[in-house]
Automatic annotation (TrEMBL):
GO MF, any single term: cysteine-type endopeptidase inhibitor activity
Originating organism: Citrus sinensis
Official protein name in the record: Cystatin domain-containing protein
InterPro entries for the chain: Cystatin_dom, Cystatin_sf
Keyword GTP-binding applies: no
Pfam annotation, one family: SQAPI
Length: 82
């Protein structure tokens, strides 16, 4: 008799409800829009000259809506930050 653990036999990806998962397509227009909005909001509060460049990394979490955790690349004058 051979016993195979269930986890080893089940190779489907399971999504942890309420858990963070990597965002694969960071070039989707709504992801870029969220990044631009975050930079614009920060710029207004901090009085800096931040400019949105790109989304470097991202994760999403679905609860009652989709939450995003994004790492952005922004420029402030001559300096570029992540």
């Amino acid at each position: 008799m051979v016993t195979i653990p269930l986890l080893a036999a089940d190779n489907r990806k399971r999504v942890l409800v309420g858990g963070w998962k990597s965002k694969e397509d960071l070039s989707e227009p709504h992801v870029t829009e969220i990044g631009r909005f975050a930079v614009m909001s920060t710029k207004k509060r901090s009085k800096n000259e931040f400019k949105f460049k790109s989304v470097e990394k991202g994760k999403t979490k679905v609860v009652s809506s989709t939450n995003y955790r994004l790492i952005l690349v922004v420029k402030d004058g001559k300096n570029c930050y992540q």
